[in-house]
Specification:
Blueprint: E1 15-23, E2 27-34, E3 40-42, H1 54-65, H2 70-80, H3 87-105, E4 115-126, E5 135-144, E6 151-157, H4 162-176, E7 182-185, H5 190-199, E8 201-202, E9 207-208, E10 211-214, H6 225-238, H7 248-265, H8 276-279, H9 289-301
Parallel strand pairs: 4-7, 7-10
Antiparallel strand pairs: 1-2, 2-3, 4-5, 5-6, 8-9
Length: 302
């Protein structure tokens, strides 16, 4: 998508470079002037009105998903940046940009294999930010394409029921269209009906339109290795989380950020590249992929 400079007031493209605004932490920022309405403005590149440099913000997000807590990121920045940021600010950056990027990446067309694996992870979330109120059992339902290692769809939910499983399968179908022929799951009883409702039943062949491959490890039928390996990475990162701050919404956004990190940022050891390189037509050229994704998400929302 072409990155054009458009006047925010009259939406004209008759725009010229004007002056540069000097900021304390972000250096010089280019200002523009519209020749139609004479409004001057700065380009919104996804960091509009942010007081910290984009590289610092994306560095904080990257460190967080590589296993560093927000307080440890704050201590790291204190040693290198005169203008330090609090751990609360870092947390807000993670939430803000995980939402923005996921809105963009959820709309990407996927080119995956014929199979998708789906499973769930149990979490114990605080009922509130106050520890004395206890914990509540929640679930993270996710899916992966074994061929491309791409995490297709996921959702953090309060309950593991028919409704929640059906929504994730519906998201899989929306993103992949008619590509999926096999859905592999464990023996959880909600999967057969959810798959049937989403993909439909063919009266001609008297079967569901996709094959449901049920693998029950307790019966010695093996494991769904690709998604179990994904869960190992997920548990390694989230085992130090302290109850997701007592919020389902917070937990969902943080894990959406992990989905972005897994699909677009870190290379998979088996395929020797990021999963998005096999599953999408997206081309990210730089090393700071967080920065590129934020820019692309802003252009997509304009």
């Amino acid at each position: 998508m072409e990155n054009k400079i458009i006047c925010p007031k009259c939406k004209s493209e008759n725009v010229i470079k004007w002056t540069k605004r000097k900021t304390q932490n972000r250096g010089l920022i280019q200002r523009y002037k519209c020749n139609n309405c004479e409004k001057t403005f700065t380009k919104d590149d996804g960091f509009f009105r942010m007081r910290n440099h984009p590289k610092k913000i994306t560095c904080a997000i990257d460190l967080f998903y590589r296993g560093v807590s927000t307080r440890k990121v704050q201590e790291h920045f204190k040693a290198f940046y005169p203008h330090n940021s609090s751990n609360v600010s870092i947390y807000k950056w993670i939430i803000k940009y995980s939402k923005a990027i996921s809105n963009f990446t959820n709309g990407l067309k996927l080119n995956v294999g014929a199979e998708v694996q789906i499973d769930e992870v149990e979490y114990h979330r605080r009922k509130s930010h106050k520890q004395r109120l206890g914990n509540e059992r929640n679930w993270f339902i996710d899916s992966i394409c074994p061929k491309t290692k791409f995490m297709v769809a996921s959702d953090y939910v309060k309950f593991r029921g028919m409704k929640e499983v059906k929504q994730v399968i519906k998201n899989i179908k929306t993103k992949t269209g008619v590509q999926i022929k096999v859905i592999t799951s464990d023996g959880w009883l909600a999967y057969p009906n959810a798959i049937r409702k989403v993909y439909g039943f063919s009266n001609k062949i008297h079967k569901v339109n996709v094959f449901h491959n049920r693998v029950n490890a307790s019966k010695g039928e093996g494991f769904n290795i690709p998604i179990e390996r994904l869960h190992n990475n997920l548990r390694a990162r989230t085992k130090t989380f302290r109850g997701f701050h007592g919020s389902v919404e917070s937990a969902n956004v943080i894990l959406k950020g992990f989905e972005i990190y897994y699909n677009f940022i870190t290379k998979h050891q088996t395929i020797k590249k990021c999963p998005y390189e096999l599953a999408t037509d997206l081309k990210l050229k730089g090393d700071n992929k967080w920065l590129e994704l934020i820019g692309l998400s802003k252009i997509n929302n304009q």
